[in-house]
Amino acid sequence: MVLFEKIDENAEAIRRVGERAVLEAKRFGVPAHYMDPTLCDGIIREMPDGTRQQIELKNDEEIVVNSFGPRV
Fold first, then answer.
1. Domain definitions of the chain by residue range
2. Is 43 helix (H, G, I), strand (E, B) or coil?
3. Which of 9, 55, 57, 59 is the most exposed place for a label (fewest CB within 10 A)?
């Protein structure tokens, strides 16, 4: 229970760390993978150009199941 309370207390800091990680991935020209429950209940792959896709892993392969526009 204490761990979840700490996560709630630090939610904004955690979000900022995630945003920095996505920016770094873009800077290096590689996709970033993360979860965003406001978009879907799965894994999001964000490409360096900002294109976002929901993916599923099947046999160690990333399968695109949905596409989203870039962040605004």
1. 2-68
2. strand
3. 59
